[in-house]
Write a structure and sequence with these properties.
The chain is α+β, with helices and mostly antiparallel strands. The protein is built from 18 helices and 22 strands. The strands form 7 sheets. A 5-stranded mixed barrel has the order 1-2-3-5-4. Strand 7 and strand 8 form a beta hairpin. It is globular and about 90 Å long.
């Protein structure tokens, strides 16, 4: 017999009754029923109930064992009888009648419990992630992640792609965030960078003639955490194709994404290819976002012209100064109590807006503070433009052209959730096309990339050759890739959807940390391993590095 197990803790069935079996795992829970002690033994595969009889050596040994200790139990598989059968467990028809038990690793008092549904602070969960990962939900999420990656890899290979690994130590490259820098011992004063993405290397693979590349690629960005973005590092399905158009890229990725969501979506509806194509400007107008939630039926309308020169002075002034006014419908809310509108107004102010104006439409006409100062024909024009009827309301987001659309998108999302309009149990995909290439950074007053700097602008090479934007800067920062392009480069294109976000959506988790094995906290810290950490002065000297810390954290 094997030293640790003949079966996993999820394997025994009624057909195994009468056999001698050996199981190893963690003590999930213990229940003392007088003459019998019941232990639920858990491993990665499941849970089996083990029974220890009073007076036996095994009973005496297990009595002192704390939960989450690792033990090995040897005994006889017996059928449970009547009401003792547990239909919720695959092993619920049997139990292991223990003869012997060996304590492989005794557990100390736990900082957090594994059994049960008790919630613990994120700090505790991340510091003791190895314990947190033992919980059923986390085990399920990690298995889901592994399954999704395996499915994506299989689908890409079946589509004719070859998996290659690109360098981790490379040169700094602008991808929209800060690099993690790695000092070089051999080249004092010089640094490598961890890749924000394998972008240049995958394009160079096309120049090398490899035609169809993909990789489940680790990416590193020194940026703040968000609910749907992990700080520090993340993974993406990175791929590139030669001799393709934009539509070829779309048509290649759509069956992969749709197939994975159908495979792991537990029956939830998935958009069938081809996915809708929505130009950026249209998306910002209708949804106030470049990543719209199409499960939300609310559509935003531009109503600037209806307030221009109107009696509602605030919005008229905004329109006259070149600003915009966007209307977000709220169907069936006209009869809602004043508290409904006040709560949304308070929320808007907390979001940094001046407030959230609205008009209510009932059978007698428009109502509310704005309606009292707005000409009746203008209010009616707004109602018609927004497709509203008696009983509906409309909210307004007004301001600068680069601010009001985004706030309107936030209002749309808030109303969709507040009114229960989001269609749960569905995944709705689309492509957002025609992103602007450049924009003015309001903080630095410098021209910056507004999207992926490696994308081809509308107008293709002619636009680049005739307008020649930032030519010297491009040459300095992308010299290696541009040099390669001088020796025969095929037309190529690709994409890179995030693996972590895909799993997060499939797992229906609100925070991306729930689908990452060992994530950092919101401050980019590894509480379990104690990183980032100070480096000994001798090591810094060896690397020719001198620290210039901000005064508030300066070390004496």
């Amino acid at each position: 017999m094997h030293a640790y197990r003949t079966h996993t803790c999820g394997a025994l069935r009624a057909s195994d009754a009468g056999q001698t079996a050996r199981l190893s795992g963690w003590v999930h829970s213990k229940r003392d029923h007088g003459g019998l002690l019941f232990v639920d033994l858990r491993d990665h595969y499941g849970l089996t109930q083990c029974v220890f009889a009073a007076g036996s050596a095994a009973f005496t040994a297990i009595e002192r064992v704390r939960p989450e200790s690792v033990i090995t139990v040897t005994g006889t598989v017996v059928n449970r009888e009547g009401a003792t059968v547990n239909p919720k467990l695959p092993t619920g028809e049997v139990e292991l009648k223990a003869d012997t038990v060996v304590v492989q690793s005794a557990a100390d008092v736990l900082p957090m419990q594994v059994a049960g549904d008790e919630k613990f602070p994120d700090e505790i969960r991340l510091k003791y992630r190895f314990i947190d990962l033992r919980r059923e939900k986390m085990q399920r999420n990690m298995k889901l992640r592994a399954g999704v990656i395996a499915s994506i890899r299989r689908r890409m290979i079946d589509s004719g792609f070859t998996e290659f690994q690109t360098p981790i130590l490379t040169a700094s490259s602008p991808e929209g965030a800060r690099d993690f820098l790695v000092p070089s011992l051999s080249h004092p004063g010089k640094f490598c960078a961890l890749p924000q993405a394998p972008q240049q290397f995958k394009q160079l693979a096309m120049v090398a003639g490899l035609d169809r590349y993909f990789q489940i690629a680790p990416c590193f960005r020194d940026e703040a955490s968000r609910a749907d973005r992990s700080p520090g590092e993340f993974y993406q399905l990175d791929f590139e194709m030669s001799f393709v158009t934009q539509e070829d890229v779309f048509n290649t990725l759509e069956p992969v994404i749709a197939g994975v969501f159908e495979e792991f979506g537990d029956g939830r509806a998935v958009t069938k290819p081809p996915f809708p194509r929505i130009p950026y400007d249209t998306s910002m107008l209708l949804y106030g976002s470049d990543k719209p939630d199409l499960r939300n039926p609310l559509v935003i309308t531009d109503v600037t012209e209806h307030f221009a020169g109107s009696g509602f002075g605030l919005f008229a002034k905004i329109a006259a100064s070149g600003g915009i006014v966007r209307a977000i419908p709220a169907p069936g809310t006209a009869a809602n109590p004043r508290s409904f509108f006040d709560k949304l107004n308070d929320w808007a102010r907390a979001e940094g807006a001046g407030g959230l104006g609205y008009i209510q439409f009932d059978a007698e006409g428009p109502k509310g503070p704005i309606a009292r100062n707005l000409e009746a024909d203008r209010a009616e024009a707004i109602r018609v433009a927004c497709g509203l009827k008696a009983g509906d309301s409309v909210f307004f987001a007004a301001g600068k052209k680069d601010e009001a659309p985004k706030f309107a998108g936030s209002v749309r999302a808030r109303l969709g959730n507040e009114l229960g309009l989001i269609k749960d149990g569905a995944f709705k995909f689309c492509w957002i096309t025609d992103f602007p290439m450049f924009e003015l950074n309001e903080e630095t007053k410098q021209i910056d990339f507004s999207h992926n700097p490696f994308s081809m602008p509308q107008g293709e090479l002619e636009a680049l050759n005739t307008q020649d934007p930032l030519a010297a800067d491009v040459e300095a920062r992308f010299g290696g890739m541009l040099n390669a392009f001088r020796y025969g480069a095929p037309p190529h294109g690709g994409s890179a959807p995030g693996i972590d976000r895909i799993v997060m959506l499939l797992a229906d988790e609100p925070n991306i940390r729930e689908v990452i094995l060992f994530p950092l906290n919101q401050q980019g810290e590894d509480l379990m391993m104690g990183a980032p950490a100070e480096v000994p002065a001798a090591r810094l000297k060896e690397l020719s590095i001198a620290l210039a810390l901000p005064p508030k954290i300066r070390k004496e």
